[in-house]
């Protein structure tokens, strides 16, 4: 691995391979609880789960082996920087998770605006915008967030009659 | 004559004012998502799937087809004008298109790609019109073993042929198949992998996976890795082609269409192979001065051919979708999901059971192509303005639409947490170079393939030999084996040849 390469380290590759093995383990655990009742066809509902278990286990082990012997084969460079920007990731994640937690109580418009604001602040930081975090950008982002989520809410609830949660029962907020 | 009558009836449905409006909105929206980085047609259709609950089936299918089509037109605009192509389909267009734009010929490149898309799209629609009913008639005769093998063929080509590594492709495919296992088993009704959660009994929704894997992952990826990536935009020039441009473009359009159409027809997804093949053909056929432009000033054939091939493939891909119910790309997989939301299973019966819908859809493709030509030639300047939307705001805005798509389906906050988790999975897959199409295709096609397989084995009274005992099924087994073996043997032979020289 050369400096500046976006190809993840062998250690990270091993972790991903191990993750696939873990998924295979989870699949096996779940497959044990599915009945093997095959009927007259000879193939029961647990066949595909076991097939996935076995293939994923083989793939996981193979990935770990590749990672330990010089890294994944035929990798192409991913786009972007070699190093992850964890701070920005936390901002965007916070936006998404807060949205999931609040949408049922504060309604679509407010919840999505919060999500938008947190995400855009994170992305501004990622882009190294000097004005990120200033009062001006916060105000601007809140207004933009409202300007996107409110019409989206109205379009979907009023015109398409799709159920989205509101803060009030009016269908407008 | 029968086809012609059916098509006329289709036109009668498609040109009602309401349906024309749906087509226009779909085409415009599709062009916009094609131009904008971060969202592609698969995500756009996925995010709008909740409308299937309210909008009538013909209207929504016309709308989705418009998005599907429009995105192909829009995608080429971005790849010609920006130095970073959005999706693999426009990567080839970007190679020459970008060079043309850099030498001040962006307008000609945009024109040849829009007209080429129109020519190829229209010819391929004619092919769909003429051949889809025949394929459907033939497909009625196929039994579960043949269906299962066709799906295996789709799985094999999506996972093992596309992408860099067959191992990572297989891993992605089986992750998709595993996701498809969650929920109630279709045949026996047994619950699988639900962990006692009622929400999981219906299975994981395709909207969640598509939106999470593409839209949310794209936003997270941009925040983590692409914050300060600089993008330069090439200068626009007048959208105009000289007589020489026309002379060089039209054979390339036709050749591209000829290469692209068959690739779309077979259940072997992806536009990568036909576009690259068309590019290679054009480069080989070019002579003298024209050839010198390849890789230098940018050759117009190198834009015209691959663009036509791309659109022809995408259009013809509707044949396996409509007649066999087999999706060969992310977007067609999501379209299949849209049909399923209406309780319609695309397949050979579709042409008899929902004839009005199918023919209205096909008629709308002709109309959509004309709309897109108008939207993309005189109005291209308007779309170019979309490229000026600042990235932080654009990406954060995508999250709002992602929420609508994911939450609008079932109104469950649980789904939004799941959406985030799938987004993280998407980031890891992108960084570690795992292809994502096999996940979506595996997830949608998995349960269908499983049902066909179990029916097939039941048909063989418990014997797996049934797949080798029927001629058509046996042929498909051989094809799958060839698809797996031939590229590897050829690669090895090429390597040996290289080593010896």
Describe it:
Chain A: This is Tricarboxylic transport membrane protein. Chain A: Keywords: Membrane, Transmembrane, Transmembrane helix. Chain A: InterPro entries: DUF1468. Chain A: Residues 15-165 form the DUF1468 domain. Chain A: The chain crosses the membrane at residues 12-35, 47-65, 86-119. The complex is a heterodimer of chains A (173) and B (501). Chain A folds into two domains: 10-68; 86-159, no CATH class. Chain A has helices at residues 10-32, 47-68, 86-106, 108-126, 135-159. The termini of chain A are far apart. Chain A is flat and about 60 Å long. With 173 residues, chain A is an all-alpha fold. With 501 residues, chain B is mostly helical. Chain B has one domain (2-500). A two-stranded antiparallel sheet of chain B has the order 1-2. In chain B, a hairpin with a 6-residue loop joins β1 and β2. In chain B, α4 (57-81) packs across α5 (91-102) and α6 (106-139) runs parallel beside α15 (318-324). Chain B is globular. Chain B starts with a helix and ends with a helix. The mean pLDDT of chain B is 87. Chains A and B meet through α1, α2, α3, α4 and α5 of A and α8, α10, α20, α21 and α22 of B.
The number of helical runs of chain A is: 5
Helicity level of chain A: 55-70%
Assembly type: heterodimer
Order of helices and strands of chain B: HHHHHHHHEEHHHHHHHHHHHHHHHH
Strand content of chain B: under 5%
Query: What is the makeup of the main sheet of chain A?
Result: none
Could you estimate the helical fraction of the residues of chain B in percent? over 70%
Calculate the terminal CA-CA distance of chain A, rounded to whole Å: 53 Å
Secondary-structure class of chain A? mainly alpha
Strand order, sheet with most strands of chain B: 1-2
Low-confidence region ranges of chain B: none
Instruction: Name the overall outline of chain B.
Output: globular
Sketch the major β-sheet of chain B: 2 strands, antiparallel
Radius of gyration over C-alpha positions of chain A, nearest whole angstrom:
24 Å
Number of domains of chain B: 1
Count of alpha and pi helical runs of chain B? 24
SSE string of chain A, helices as H and strands as E = HHHHH
Q: What gyration radius of chain B follows from the Cα positions, in whole Å?
A: 22 Å
Tally of individual domains of chain A: 2
The total beta strand count of chain B reads 2
Overall pLDDT level of chain A = 89
Keywords (chain A): Membrane, Transmembrane, Transmembrane helix
Protein name (chain A): Tricarboxylic transport membrane protein
Transmembrane segments (chain A): 12-35, 47-65, 86-119
Pfam families (chain A): TctB (PF07331)
